[in-house]
């Protein structure tokens, strides 16, 4: 009994250790059930910060970003739940960010929105430059810290992306389309013209067309050398006010069809979740074959 108590105490201490240091100054935890947070990071940049957005404007912009995993069908980089949380929690950070600040984020989601699926993480940085919202992705559908720790015995390193070089082995590729453009042919960097995007509602599905795969990209280096034009309604030193989106045309909705009964999938066991996670880590090059076989044998032994 004493041994069991000691084991539980050690597990609790490990959880505290894993979460300590995750939050810092200017960090907002977005959902207590996950590792989600947003925070400011001082960088060597001249962003158009501060910027005042509304939740609807940020939701419009973030909903335009799409990704492709392997050869799968394009899908939103952020789930609807991530967009809802980010559009609220990013507001105060953009409003107080300085030109030398980037806004970092870590968000979690369940693939397909299915409750029984293990959480996955997206991480990166956001900043406004030359009137465009930029997203530099550092993680795409990676394992959360605690799940990674259980599978490998190591802490999950968080990658927020970098202007200097692309992320090696990221789990997806960002796509041009829906008003978003790839920057400098990098699969981890997307840019959206704010004024143009907010003039209309974001498409409900991916509309990339031929331009998305033609190599056509947005290249900041070709912009004029003059000082960047401020966003609409700038009143220094007051924050930049993002433009208000034009009202969307009314849509005539047809009567909803009768819902179909869907049988829920059987939940995965902890061992199955750990084996699936372990294989994903190996496929993404985060652990080598020897580590994979060692961890897999340990999990199978406990069955």
From TrEMBL:
Keywords, sorted A to Z: Signal
Domain SHOCT, residue spans: 274-299
Listed InterPro entries: SHOCT
Signal peptide start-end: 1-24
Top-level taxon: Bacteria
Name the UniProt record assigns to this protein: Short C-terminal domain-containing protein
